[in-house]
Amino acid sequence: MRHLLLRLLNLFRRDDATHELDREITAHLALLEEEHHRRGLTPDQARLAARRAMGSVALAKDLHRDARSFVRLEDLGRDFRHAVRALRRAPGFTLIAVFALGLGIGVNTTFFTIVNAICLRGLPIESPDRVMYVSGRDAQDRTANLSYVEFDELRARHFDTDKMIEAGDLLMLDAREVLATFMEDGQPDAERFNQSVPAAIARIVRGLDKRTVRAYGEMVDLLWKDGLTTAAVKLEMLWNQLARTHDFSLLCGYSMGNFYKDAVVGEITRLHTHLIADTGEAATIN
């Protein structure tokens, strides 16, 4: 502990420590020179012999300085002072550098604050994981923002999904996850389909008290987008077979982009009872 305190003290009294080191090395050389002189050497020979015995004076000073203080901190202080002097000699460059650093730090801080608040912590609202982004699709199957008229219409038809889920009136499933339960080698498996989908319909039927079940699906559209047109047609057939044994109506949503790029659209439409074309962004088949 005492040695550490001395090293810290020498860090703040650098000039005094340097002078003490110089005096110690000078005294040590003088003692060596005197000893060689007593052995019969001339003063010049004794001085050279003392230098040879001592070795490099600069190296000795560096070794003593390393042992007596914190050299890295001293070097850091010297670098800092040199940087300050250089910046004072070029005020224009200093101003630009400070502005660039401030701007960069500010932008990064702002960006991280936004990412932290929205992506890492979540939105400062109740159940942020239930917030959904609603958009449309244009004729090229690109994401398109809703117009204010469409937004206003959606807002006017607002219903509380949480209450509907709690009451058993609404069941929300991920289309990709449901597909994974019955797809096999790029094709829907009839047996696995009849084990997976009817179970979801039955969960809703139990709570509706003879009211009609309406299913809204996009699984066929996903297969169509993936280029699995044969699988898409087969899945439509499985839906039709299921409708003969279960009481529900199916509303299928398709991206308009699919209707312009594939001849299979005729087979898809023939497997439905109604076709409703929207005014420019979506098609709905019932």
Query: Alpha-carbon distance between the termini?
Result: 84 Å
Kindly report the spatial arrangement of strands forming the biggest sheet: 5-6-8-7
Give, in order, the helices and strands: HHHHHHEEHHHEEHEHHEHHEE
| Mean pLDDT value | 76
Q: How would you classify the helix and strand content by structural class?
A: alpha+beta
How many domain modules? 3
Q: Which band does the percent of strand residues land in?
A: 5-15%
Q: From the alpha-carbon coordinates, what is the Rg to the nearest angstrom? A: 41 Å
Q: How many DSSP E strands?
A: 8
Residue ranges: pLDDT <50 for 5 or more in a row? 280-286
What form results from the Cα inertia axes? elongated
Our count of helices gives 14
The percent range for helix content is 55-70%
Report the sheet with the most strands, covering strand number, pairing sense and barrel closure.
Answer: 4 strands, mixed
Please explain how this structure is put together:
- The structure is a single chain.
- This protein is an alpha+beta fold and 286 residues long.
- It folds into 3 domains: 2-88, no CATH class; 90-125; 136-285, no CATH class.
- 66% of the residues lie in helices and 10% in strands.
- It has 14 helices and 8 strands.
- It has a 4-stranded mixed β-sheet with strand order 5-6-8-7. The chain has a two-stranded antiparallel ribbon with strand order 1-2. It has a two-stranded antiparallel sheet with strand order 3-4.
- A hairpin with a 2-residue loop joins strand 3 and strand 4 (187-188).
- Helix 2 (14-38) crosses helix 4 (57-68).
- The longest helix is centred in the middle third of the chain and has 30 residues, at 91-120.
- The radius of gyration is 41 Å and the shape is elongated.
- 9% of the residues are buried.
- Mean pLDDT is 76; it is low at 280-286.
